[in-house]
């Protein structure tokens, strides 16, 4: 049996394969040059199996809007809260997806080796989705591990389990919500502010993220505290005692006073006595605690404070060390080692290091004794070294050293010292001094990131008196708090539940890239002009968007989803409604945002366009019916110039089906009323016409509005000229396409299928003469030109049936080497005539089809070329077929690709018509021997798609002007034939 194993990154796949195969794996290439494939044999649960190990590169699929919502001006941003989304493969991951699809075909099971956290679980289910699309019944297993070491990987293989779908669902909720919120607010802010401040923000992206903006809020809040800070003067009494070179400073118990005169009075009181008296001396042991085991947040903070690396850089390096098997998984919330975890081998591993090897040996003598914290994510242990290495350099070496030193420190002993506290009294005012003596440094020997300094003090005894060396008034003032560092910001994000340990660094890096915050001297974070303008704008609108409350609530809900306590769909809808309400407020009070941004940019805001987003459509998606072409929803939309309405498919541009409404519709809206006749969930439309005559044409007495279902209401579609195929799905019309067309001038084989004896889909119609029943059948190749119309029957077979009796002239009946023409007469006989010198067939009215059902042929009998309308207008982007020849040689063939080809009128008309069995046709005319629109000569081919009338002939001689009638134009006002809109007699009475 073969197993497909998939890791989250190529390095992880490479190292896991090396450990499982003991270095014997064979490498080969996948479609992606960055994701290799490793093969090896393995004994799994006593069975010899073939292992195939490969990888992805993070997320394989991402949430995305349907194409019709991706453009910045494609819709009102508020629609994005409800717009349909799907998970699609990114372009960069397409080759990886192809590799998985290829490899899974030959495998009996799939093993997920992605990182064991929420995000990794979600990536695992993306891999499962891709593989099950190829092999639906594939068995799926999950390998759970926290470090890439031989023991850990062996343990993971021996304990394969099922993947955790709840964790994946939590990530799906968060991802979809981030997409909707980010897209809606970002489009609104960017488009509005670009219009209001074209000189300052014309090319800037003013993005919004539900984690990024609260993170910005912390920085902006601290900056405003500093900006609004007013220093206050204070005074305090200073008392020093010097013996030799050692000066001991005593602190006043009242600390400081903000009243100078009051402080001076206390000083005068103290100065009235010359000697201070020691009233107590306390000696007590003092310990400095060793650190707790290292989690992600602490690693990021230490990297920022001690190594001067930003959080993103620190985590990138840590992940690289993890995939190389040097440290354990670096994304963990756990800061406690379990009792069953064997720490001694990890300490002993470091005993040979030249810098901290001696201390590791001391720890072995004491016995590893971690000072555990109180957090555990029940998935991963704290970050610790898993391999002894000495070949690292640069920042990788510094991060590895931090992890090792922190680990050794946390499993060693606290530093021990002795503290002396002395209390003295002078004129009834109390003063205190302290000293420290370090007795055992212990963990401080290996951990340079902490400091604990000795502080000497005189050997005071209770009852001693001394004269102060210095006694005076010290003046100072309060100072503003420092600006936040990255470590401070991470601590605030963790405290308020913004993001997770895995995403803190990403959020901070994002707002840096957006220019919302910057880094000043000594690593302090400062908000940018744009960032401050946004935060102050939200505050002026009384919106909590820059505060942590909204996002913190989501993080709590996500944890409950993982624990099975909350329904993902309910959480998603609740959160969408909260942010939808916030969006409504920001659109109503947008002027406050303009004013706040204008103050920061020092520019007067312009007036924003009043209908900036109204032109993009209503605030909500107005679904009407399902698209018959792709099964997505058809929605009511407003034209770009706001001049009318149309139905557009949500699958655009993949599906270009649309219905463009007449400009005479003044207003249109989709109601919530479901059509009971359809029973398919179609919503009714409510329209208002510009002219009252349209209500009369629809037999509607109410001249204010007309409510209808566009799918059911044939009269409505006919009145507005709407093509049925754009809103209705048709069943097969009975046209046969499974017959091989015989070449012209040759007889078909004996076993060739014959046309059916009668058309089960057509009504019988009486022909000329009593009891005459006539049915047409046409087949043959469709090479048409004018010679056929001049010469007679051409290459078509036209059958007339009379009283179910047929006789053949000259003994010929049926198939021959020439063309066959059965001509109808008033008698009860039918004559079969062979024409051995056939003329070319006449052109057909609709586009012929080749033997391949999907191939359209032009009038030159060549496969038509597929093109797309590029000219601006209602048909822009619409596909059509045209002759493939050079422009000066084309046959002028044209057919829309998104409409079914026209049926029988002319499909078999003229000579050589294509198959048209089973199509409903009117009866032939009762006068004359020929068919309506027939050929000019006797024996012309049938064309029963038209009734006799203008442009058609009822005689055997046929029409002198061509083989078919032109459709008469109708007036745009009264819809009557015979004149145009410009010459309509009712024009002057039109109610504009």
UniProtKB/TrEMBL annotation:
<dbReference type="InterPro" id="IPR013824">
    <property type="entry name" value="Topo_IA_cen_sub1"/>
</dbReference>
<dbReference type="InterPro" id="IPR006171">
    <property type="entry name" value="TOPRIM_dom"/>
</dbReference>
<protein>
    <recommendedName>
        <fullName>DNA topoisomerase</fullName>
        <ecNumber>5.6.2.1</ecNumber>
    </recommendedName>
</protein>
<feature type="domain" description="Topo IA-type catalytic">
    <location>
        <begin position="164"/>
        <end position="583"/>
    </location>
</feature>
<dbReference type="GO" id="GO:0006310">
    <property type="term" value="P:DNA recombination"/>
</dbReference>
<feature type="compositionally biased region" description="Gly residues">
    <location>
        <begin position="927"/>
        <end position="937"/>
    </location>
</feature>
<dbReference type="InterPro" id="IPR023406">
    <property type="entry name" value="Topo_IA_AS"/>
</dbReference>
<keyword id="KW-0238">DNA-binding</keyword>
<dbReference type="Pfam" id="PF06839">
    <property type="entry name" value="Zn_ribbon_GRF"/>
</dbReference>
<dbReference type="InterPro" id="IPR003602">
    <property type="entry name" value="Topo_IA_DNA-bd_dom"/>
</dbReference>
<comment type="function">
    <text>Releases the supercoiling and torsional tension of DNA introduced during the DNA replication and transcription by transiently cleaving and rejoining one strand of the DNA duplex. Introduces a single-strand break via transesterification at a target site in duplex DNA. The scissile phosphodiester is attacked by the catalytic tyrosine of the enzyme, resulting in the formation of a DNA-(5'-phosphotyrosyl)-enzyme intermediate and the expulsion of a 3'-OH DNA strand. The free DNA strand than undergoes passage around the unbroken strand thus removing DNA supercoils.</text>
</comment>
<keyword id="KW-0479">Metal-binding</keyword>
<dbReference type="GO" id="GO:0003917">
    <property type="term" value="F:DNA topoisomerase type I (single strand cut, ATP-independent) activity"/>
</dbReference>
<dbReference type="InterPro" id="IPR034144">
    <property type="entry name" value="TOPRIM_TopoIII"/>
</dbReference>
<feature type="compositionally biased region" description="Low complexity">
    <location>
        <begin position="938"/>
        <end position="950"/>
    </location>
</feature>
<dbReference type="InterPro" id="IPR010666">
    <property type="entry name" value="Znf_GRF"/>
</dbReference>
<comment type="function">
    <text>Introduces a single-strand break via transesterification at a target site in duplex DNA. Releases the supercoiling and torsional tension of DNA introduced during the DNA replication and transcription by transiently cleaving and rejoining one strand of the DNA duplex. The scissile phosphodiester is attacked by the catalytic tyrosine of the enzyme, resulting in the formation of a DNA-(5'-phosphotyrosyl)-enzyme intermediate and the expulsion of a 3'-OH DNA strand.</text>
</comment>
<feature type="domain" description="GRF-type">
    <location>
        <begin position="858"/>
        <end position="900"/>
    </location>
</feature>
<feature type="compositionally biased region" description="Gly residues">
    <location>
        <begin position="906"/>
        <end position="916"/>
    </location>
</feature>
<feature type="compositionally biased region" description="Low complexity">
    <location>
        <begin position="818"/>
        <end position="837"/>
    </location>
</feature>
<feature type="domain" description="Toprim">
    <location>
        <begin position="2"/>
        <end position="146"/>
    </location>
</feature>
<dbReference type="InterPro" id="IPR013826">
    <property type="entry name" value="Topo_IA_cen_sub3"/>
</dbReference>
<feature type="compositionally biased region" description="Gly residues">
    <location>
        <begin position="951"/>
        <end position="960"/>
    </location>
</feature>
<dbReference type="GO" id="GO:0006265">
    <property type="term" value="P:DNA topological change"/>
</dbReference>
<dbReference type="GO" id="GO:0008270">
    <property type="term" value="F:zinc ion binding"/>
</dbReference>
<dbReference type="InterPro" id="IPR000380">
    <property type="entry name" value="Topo_IA"/>
</dbReference>
<dbReference type="Pfam" id="PF01751">
    <property type="entry name" value="Toprim"/>
</dbReference>
<keyword id="KW-0862">Zinc</keyword>
<dbReference type="GO" id="GO:0005634">
    <property type="term" value="C:nucleus"/>
</dbReference>
<comment type="similarity">
    <text>Belongs to the type IA topoisomerase family.</text>
</comment>
<dbReference type="InterPro" id="IPR003601">
    <property type="entry name" value="Topo_IA_2"/>
</dbReference>
<dbReference type="Pfam" id="PF01131">
    <property type="entry name" value="Topoisom_bac"/>
</dbReference>
<dbReference type="InterPro" id="IPR013497">
    <property type="entry name" value="Topo_IA_cen"/>
</dbReference>
<feature type="region of interest" description="Disordered">
    <location>
        <begin position="896"/>
        <end position="972"/>
    </location>
</feature>
<dbReference type="InterPro" id="IPR023405">
    <property type="entry name" value="Topo_IA_core_domain"/>
</dbReference>
<feature type="region of interest" description="Disordered">
    <location>
        <begin position="733"/>
        <end position="852"/>
    </location>
</feature>
<keyword id="KW-0799">Topoisomerase</keyword>
<feature type="compositionally biased region" description="Low complexity">
    <location>
        <begin position="771"/>
        <end position="781"/>
    </location>
</feature>
<dbReference type="InterPro" id="IPR013825">
    <property type="entry name" value="Topo_IA_cen_sub2"/>
</dbReference>
<keyword id="KW-0863">Zinc-finger</keyword>
<dbReference type="GO" id="GO:0003677">
    <property type="term" value="F:DNA binding"/>
</dbReference>
<dbReference type="GO" id="GO:0006281">
    <property type="term" value="P:DNA repair"/>
</dbReference>
């Amino acid at each position: 049996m073969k197993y497909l194993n998939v890791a989250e990154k190529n390095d992880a796949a490479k190292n896991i394969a090396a450990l499982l195969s003991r270095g014997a794996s064979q490498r080969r290439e996948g479609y992606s040059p960055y994701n290799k494939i490793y093969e090896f044999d393995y004994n799994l649960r006593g069975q010899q199996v073939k292992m195939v190990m490969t990888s992805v590169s993070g997320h394989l699929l991402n949430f995305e809007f349907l194409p019709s919502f991706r453009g910045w001006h494609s819709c009102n941003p508020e629609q994005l809260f409800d717009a349909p989304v799907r998970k699609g493969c990114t372009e960069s991951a397409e080759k990886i997806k192809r590799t998985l699809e290829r490899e899974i075909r030959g495998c009996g099971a799939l093993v997920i080796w992605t990182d064991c956290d929420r995000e990794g679980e979600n990536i695992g289910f993306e891999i499962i989705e891709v593989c099950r699309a190829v092999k639906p019944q594939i068995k799926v297993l999950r390998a759970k591990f926290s470090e890439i070491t031989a023991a850990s990987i062996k343990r993971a293989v021996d304990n394969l389990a099922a993947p955790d779908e709840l964790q994946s669902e939590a990530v799906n909720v968060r991802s979809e919500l981030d997409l909707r919120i980010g897209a809606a607010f970002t489009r609104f802010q960017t488009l509005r502010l670009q219009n209001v401040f074209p000189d300052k923000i014309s090319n800037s992206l003013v993005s919004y993220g539900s984690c990024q903006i609260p993170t910005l809020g912390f920085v902006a809040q601290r900056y405003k505290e500093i900006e609004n800070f007013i220093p206050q003067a204070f005074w305090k009494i200073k008392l020093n005692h010097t013996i030799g070179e050692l000066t001991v400073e005593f602190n006043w118990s009242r600390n400081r006073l903000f009243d100078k005169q009051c402080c001076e009075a206390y000083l005068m009181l103290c100065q009235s006595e010359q000697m201070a008296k020691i009233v107590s001396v306390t000696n007590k042991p003092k310990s400095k605690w060793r650190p707790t085991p290292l989690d992600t947040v602490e690693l990021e903070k230490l990297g920022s404070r001690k190594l001067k690396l930003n959080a993103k850089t620190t985590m990138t390096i840590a992940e690289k060390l993890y995939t190389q098997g040097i440290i354990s998984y670096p994304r963990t919330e756990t800061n406690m080692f379990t009792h069953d975890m064997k720490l001694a081998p990890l300490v002993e591993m470091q005993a040979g290091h030249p810098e901290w090897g001696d201390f590791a040996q001391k720890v072995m003598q004491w016995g590893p004794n971690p000072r555990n914290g109180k957090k555990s994510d029940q998935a991963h242990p704290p970050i610790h070294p898993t391999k002894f290495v000495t070949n690292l350099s640069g920042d990788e070496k510094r991060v590895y050293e931090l992890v090792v030193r922190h680990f050794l420190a946390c499993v060693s002993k606290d530093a021990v010292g002795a503290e002396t506290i002395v209390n003295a009294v002078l004129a009834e005012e109390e003063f205190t001094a302290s000293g420290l003596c370090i007795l055992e440094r212990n963990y401080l020997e290996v951990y340079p990131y902490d400091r604990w300094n000795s502080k000497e003090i005189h050997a005071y005894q209770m009852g001693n008196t001394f004269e102060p060396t210095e006694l005076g008034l010290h003046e100072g003032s309060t100072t503003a708090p420092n600006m936040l560092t990255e470590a401070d910001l991470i601590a605030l994000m963790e405290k308020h539940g913004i993001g997770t340990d895995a995403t803190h660094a990403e959020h901070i890096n994002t707002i840096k890239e957006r220019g919302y915050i910057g880094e000043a001297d000594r690593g302090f974070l400062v908000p940018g002009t744009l960032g401050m303008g946004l935060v102050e704008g939200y505050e002026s609108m009384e919106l909590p968007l820059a505060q942590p409350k909204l996002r913190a609530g989501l993080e709590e809900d996500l944890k409950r989803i993982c624990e099975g306590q909350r329904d993902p769909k309910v959480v998603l809808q609740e959160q969408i409604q909260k942010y939808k309400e916030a969006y409504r407020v920001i659109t109503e009070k947008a002027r406050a945002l303009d004013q706040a941004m204008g103050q920061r940019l020092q520019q007067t805001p312009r007036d924003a366009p009043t209908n900036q987003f109204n032109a993009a459509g209503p605030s909500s998606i107005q679904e009407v019916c399902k698209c018959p072409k792709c099964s997505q929803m058809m929605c009511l939309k407003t034209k770009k110039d706001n001049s009318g309405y149309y139905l557009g498919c949500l699958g655009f541009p993949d599906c270009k089906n649309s219905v463009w409404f007449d400009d005479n519709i003044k207003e249109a809206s989709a109601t919530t009323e479901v059509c009971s006749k359809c029973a398919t969930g179609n919503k009714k439309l409510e329209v208002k016409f510009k002219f009252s005559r349209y209500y009369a044409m629809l037999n509607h007495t109410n001249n204010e509005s007309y409510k209808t279902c566009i799918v059911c209401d044939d009269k409505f579609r006919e009145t507005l000229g709407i093509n049925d195929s754009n809103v209705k799905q048709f069943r097969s019309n009975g046209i046969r396409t499974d017959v091989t067309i015989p070449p012209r001038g040759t007889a078909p084989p004996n076993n060739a299928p014959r046309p059916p004896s009668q058309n089960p889909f057509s009504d019988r119609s009486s022909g000329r003469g009593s009891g005459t029943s006539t049915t047409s059948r046409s087949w043959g190749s469709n090479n048409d030109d004018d010679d056929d119309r001049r010469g007679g029957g051409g290459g078509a077979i036209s059958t007339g049936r009379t009283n179910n009796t047929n006789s053949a002239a000259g003994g010929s009946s049926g198939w021959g080497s020439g063309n066959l023409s059965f001509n109808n007469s008033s008698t009860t006989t039918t004559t079969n005539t062979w024409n051995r010198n056939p003329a070319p067939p006449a052109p057909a009215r609709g586009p012929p089809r080749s033997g391949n059902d999907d191939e359209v042929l032009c009038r030159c009998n060549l496969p038509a070329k597929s093109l797309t309308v590029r000219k601006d207008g209602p048909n822009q982007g619409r596909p059509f077929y045209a002759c493939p020849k050079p422009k000066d040689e084309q046959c002028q063939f044209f057919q829309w690709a998104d409409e079914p080809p026209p049926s029988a009128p002319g499909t078999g008309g003229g000579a050589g018509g294509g198959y048209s069995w089973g199509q409903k046709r009117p009866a032939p005319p009762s006068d004359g021997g020929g068919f309506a629109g027939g050929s000019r000569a006797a024996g012309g081919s049938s064309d029963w798609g038209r009734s006799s009338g203008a442009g058609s002939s009822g005689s055997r001689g046929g029409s002198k002007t061509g083989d078919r009638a032109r459709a008469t134009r109708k007036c745009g006002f009264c819809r009557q034939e015979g004149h145009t809109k410009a010459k309509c007699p009712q024009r002057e009475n039109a109610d504009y």
